[in-house]
Amino acid sequence: MKLKPERKIYLSLIIFGIITILLIILIIHPLFKGIQKNSEEFISQKKKLILLQEEMKSLKETEVLYKTYQTNIDKIDDLFADPEVPIEFIEFLEKNAEKSQLSIKISLMARKETEPWPSLFFQISTVGSFPNLLKFLEKLEASSYLIEISDLNVKRLTEKELQSDEFRTFSLGDVYTMFLIKVLTK
Asked: How many domains does the chain have?
C-alpha cells in the first residue's frame, strides 16, 4: 500500500514532532534542570564565600583591636591578687608599710562565701605616726589592686603600752591601727 504524498508529509511531521518532544523531554529538559541546579549551587557557594570574606574581615579587625588593647588587657590581670599564693600582694603591703615607716602585721582571714566576687581578706595592724599611716592608706588606695578597706580602728599609744617590748621603739605620738582589707582575686 502506497501512502499519498500528503499523508507521507503528515506522517513525517508526526514522527518528527514525536522525536522532537522525546528529544526535549529526554535530553534538553534534564540539561536545563542540571543548569538550574548548578546555578543555584553556584549562588549558594557565592553567598557562603561572601560570608566567609566578611568573617575574615571581622576577624582581622578583632585582631587589630586585640593588639591595640593588649597592654590594657595585661594591666587588668594585675588588678587581681593570686588567690592560691598571695605572696606578691603581701610583699606589696610590706614594701609600702616600710616606705611609709610603719611596723606591719598581716593575717589572712577566712573567706566569706557570701561575696559575689572571689576575694581574699587580710587583717592588718600597723604602728607608726599618724601622717605615715595616711601615706600608707593613700598608697593602698592608689595601688593597681582592687582593694576595699573596712573596720578601720586607730588609737594612740599610751605610756603603759610604750613600756611593753612590742612598742618599745615607738613614741608617745604614734598610733596603733587595725583594719580589714578585701582584695579581689583572679
From this structure: 2
Identify whether residues 74 and 93 lie together within a single domain.
Answer: no
Same domain, 165 and 113: yes
Please enumerate in sequence order all residues whose Cβ is within 8 A of that of 154, keeping only pairs 6 or more positions apart, or say none. 130, 133, 175, 176, 177
Tell which residue, 107, 116, 183, has the closest CA to residue 143. 183
Together in a domain, 53 and 92: no
Query: CATH number of the domain that 141 lies in?
Result: 3.30.70.60
pLDDT by 10s per residue, the chain, length 186: 566 777 778 888 888 888 888 877 888 778 888 888 989 999 999 999 999 999 999 999 999 888 888 877 777 777 777 777 788 889 999 999 999 999 999 998 876 667 777 888 999 999 999 999 999 999 998 888 888 888 899 999 888 888 887 877 788 888 999 999 998 887
Question: Would you give the DSSP letter of residue 82?
Answer: -
Whole-model pTM: value is 0.59
